[in-house]
Amino acid sequence: MPMVKKSITVTDQQENWIQAQMATGQYATDSELIREALREKELRTAEIDYIRAKLIAAEQSVERNGWVDKTQDEILADIKEKARVDGKL
Hints:
The protein is mainly alpha-helical. The protein has helices at 12-23, 30-65, 72-85.
């Protein structure tokens, strides 16, 4: 995959965290660490978007068909489980 060189600015606190992560030896460069953080953010955003879409669909279903017997937590757990089974989480 082609790479694009970027220059970023971080706070002192963020720099300390980056350095601490690199000191563990898990990352060879700060760029490697930041790319991983961005990948994780992309995945988390996709998960949130998926859950939000399912909740909106559930809300619209309630508006059309009435209430269900499940609690919000049960509905969310069902959505997450289906997403895991479907490989989306």
